[in-house]
Amino acid sequence: MSSTVFKLKLGQVLRYLVPVYAVYGFAVLLPLCIAFIYSFYNDAGSTFVGVQQYVKLVQDSNFWISFKNNMVVVVICVIGQVGIAFVIATLLQTKFLKMRALHRVAIFLPVVLAPVVTGYLWSLIYNYRFGILNWFLGVLGKEPALWLDSPGTVIYAVSIPLVWQYVGLYLIIFLAGMQNISSDIHDAVEIDGASWIQKTIHVTLPLLKGVMQVALLLCVSGTMKTFDHIFVMTGGGPGTNSMVMAQYAYDNAFVMSRLGYASTISIGMIVLSTIVVSLVVKLTGGGLRNE
Amino acid sequence: MKRKRFIQSTLLAVLALIVIATTGCGSNGSASKGADENSGGDIGLTFGHFRVSKDNIDVLFGDTLNQFRADHPNIKIKEEAVAHDPYRDRTTTLGASGELPDIFMANGSMILDFASKGYVAPWDNVIKEDTAWSNDFVDGAFDDFKVDNQIYGVPVKMAAVHTIYYNKAIFKEIGINEFPSAWEDFKKAITTLKEAGYTPIGMGNRSSVPVGSTVFSTLADRVTGTNWFNEVKSGERKFTDPEFIQALEAMKELIDLQAFNPDINSIDEGQGEALFYNKEAAMHISGSWFLPRLVREAPEDIAANTGMAFFPAIEGGKGDAHAVAGGGGWSYAVNARLTGEKKEAAIELIKALSGEKFAVAQKEISEIPARNVANYDESKLSPLANEYSKMLEGISYTPVYDIRLKPALVKTIYQGVQELLIGASSPQQIAEKVQSAVE
To answer: Is B406 on the interface with A (CB under 8 A)?
Structure first.
């Protein structure tokens, strides 16, 4: 019975969705296809060169440096965003905490900031002369540090704003998930005398597996295409030490005027991101179908 | 069955939408083009430029444009103006899709890119025919816009892309009364400044362009000489030649002396200028465009104590010390698809923006016009500007890397110089990387 109702309405529902699909096709799929086509052309977009650009991409050390940097950012964000968000979420569930709403709002607030604003904010925080971090080091009697100029550490420095900005998003996701865990389970565990850590590891974490998978997926796929923060803070510099794939594609398209190659990089980005994301899905226990 | 039909109709709807959207844009474009050509005598021209601020030159540009409009009521100029930095991006993007305005400002690097794609019209015939207009241009003014011996742009002005602005008071304080005229003395001055607790050279280089353009282009020419550059551009020589590696090593000498502020790569140009203004840095290296800004913005005691100089000669170098990287820089270019009276109107407009009258006015607001002007009012210039224009008399201009080379190569070289600044690569490694970008 219910299935026939659904079938009858399906056509109508999908018809209402036509504008959405049209916009999606026009704004997402079409440019993607065009980029794919451009990636087989030379940099002026005038002659077909086959897979030549792809051969160049595979041999391009700058591209692989960008990919490596991307992976560093992904690892930091997975630990930072998802990890810290989970810890904070469990803390927010405990009974000792006062002013729960205030904490939630304060942690969620950065999520609504524009990434460019976050980037500027943090480049001020990192500033060598009047940044708050170096002021703090000065108070402690230490030498000021070059946060965004040291080639070895700049990639960590530009990752922290990403963590800072999006930790609130995952916090909300985890809080929503935790509210779905029946309080009976918690009560039972507490009667059995489990400590907070035991409760978190053995009860909350397994019950949040599905939510955790979604959070990881969002975090990894979002971080693979990160651009705005790094563009504002360092522009990929110094040298190529904070270059990520999206920044490299931007540089090629709009600074170096190599449109064909920039398209190739974007396609390379999609391929690598898909591989990484599917690896993550595999590692966290095979797909979301069961949920 | 029903489902199949539904899918078909949906697909059709999507297709129709896309077709309407794309042809909609297309017919719009051709309609406006048609209107331009058929509306009885009216000539429509689009003009892409970056003269949008309240700076003197931008006001002069606007006034000239309005005067031209009043003189030619049948020519309708539609301005597509955005500020300088976004203008660069915008024009590169428009160039990538071949949708450039009828007239637009283009720098040498863009001309190089567009000429090879056939987007810009050559000027050689116009220059030959109208000698009254073309004769008074400064020697080499058109050099930046030459591709295969054809000229594709008319210079907007001349610019020196390197000038050391130094604080005379600080130099006196450490016992140097005259700006060093030898490379070794210059290095000694840097060491002394460093010991006295000053940042010898304060700059901002986040985009990697400032140091590459205003420091390295001139420094490299002192070592390699201009001939080497021309030969490397035509492919006879390589960036892995000892000349270029020596140039990078000269740069490295300055870096090893800690001549630059340590946070140079994380701050932008404006923040670098502030170091010079607040006496933290004894020198600031920039182009001729910094001078009007210095006169306007700097604290009074800084402006009064500012001296100007160029890099001294480097022993064993092949370059002329009485030279500075610079040239036309930006030019007015005409879209290659213009024909007939539209093209004539475009040429006339550009002549108005590069003629004698405009050049005199340019000179009087402390700009360096692209043509020789004799009859201007010297009293209208600030003392610093007068001093600067005397300094530039008889100087020869050497190539600016980011104007003469293709954008992709420029980025590689400047990024290399930035890597040198942070000590991440050796001169040899950078030279190899740059050479591989050529191939």
So the answer is: yes
Q: What is the ipTM of this complex?
A: 0.82
What dotted CATH number matches B160-326+395-438?
A: 3.40.190.10
User: Does the beta-carbon distance from B10 to A253 stay under 8 Å?
Assistant: no
B380 in Cβ contact with B364 (< 8 Å): yes
Rounded to whole angstroms, the Cα distance separating B406 from B110 reads: 8
Q: Measure B305 CA to nearest chain A CA, in Å.
A: 25
| Minimum distance, in Å, between the CA of residue B14 and any CA atom of chain A | 6
Tokens encoding A71: 């992976």
Question: Which CATH topology does B43-158+328-374 take?
Answer: D-Maltodextrin-Binding Protein; domain 2 (3.40.190)
> H-type helices in A180-235, by residue range?
183-191, 196-199, 205-207, 209-224, 228-233
The number of CA neighbours under 13 Å toward the Cβ of B260 is 27
Calculate the average pLDDT of chain B.
86
Neighbours of B86 (CB within 10 A): 11
Instruction: Decide if A256 and B263 are in contact by the 8 Å CB cutoff.
Output: no
> Residue B72: which residues within 8 A CB-CB, separation 6 or more?
B345, B348
DSSP string over B135-165? TTBPTTTTGGGEETTEE--EES--EES-EEE
Average pLDDT score over residue span B212-241: 92
* B206 interfaces chain A, CB cutoff of 8 Å: yes
Among B18, B93, B265, the residue with its CB nearest the CB of A237 is: B265
Q: Which residues contact B195 (CB under 8 A, 6 or more apart)?
A: none
Which positions ≥6 away from A121 have C-beta within 8 Å? A113, A161
Domains B43-158+328-374 and B160-326+395-438 share a fold: yes
Q: Which of A151, A234, A257 minimises the CB distance to B113?
A: A257
| Chain B stretch 115-134, residues whose beta carbon is closer than 8 A to a beta carbon of chain A | 116-117
| Burial (CB count <10 Å: 0-12, 13-18, 19+), residue B81 | middle
Domain parsing of chain A, residue ranges = 56-283
Distance separating the N- and C-terminal Cα atoms of chain A: 25
User: In the structure, what pLDDT confidence band is assigned to residue B152 with cuts at 50, 70 and 90?
Assistant: very high
Q: How far is CA B267 from CA A34, A228, B277, in A?
A: 36, 17, 15
Distance (Å, rounded) from C-alpha A154 to C-alpha A242? 6
Tell me what the mean pLDDT of segment B301-329 comes to: 89
Rounded to whole angstroms, the Cα distance separating A253 from B89 reads: 10
pLDDT over 60 (residue A3): no
Burial of residue B344 (number of CB atoms within 10 Å: 0-12, 13-18, 19+): middle
CA distance B63 to chain A (A): 32
- Summarize pLDDT for A214-257 with one digit per residue, the tens: 999 999 999 999 999 999 999 988 989 999 999 999 999 888 87
B411 contacts A237? CB cut-off 8 A:
no
**How many Å lie between the alpha carbon of B9 and the closest alpha carbon of chain A?**
9
Q: Which helix (H) or strand (E) holds B81?
A: strand B75-81
Phi and psi at residue B425, to the nearest 5°: -135, 160
Q: Which tokens hold the place of B255?
A: 């870096």
- Give me the phi and psi of A30, to 5 degrees please: -60, -50
Are the beta carbons of B206 and A240 separated by less than 8 Å?
no
- Under an 8 A CB cutoff, do B262 and A128 touch? yes
- Chain A CA closest to residue B2: A11
Residue boundaries of the structural domains of chain B: 43-158+328-374, 160-326+395-438
Q: Which CATH architecture has domain A56-283?
A: Orthogonal Bundle (1.10)
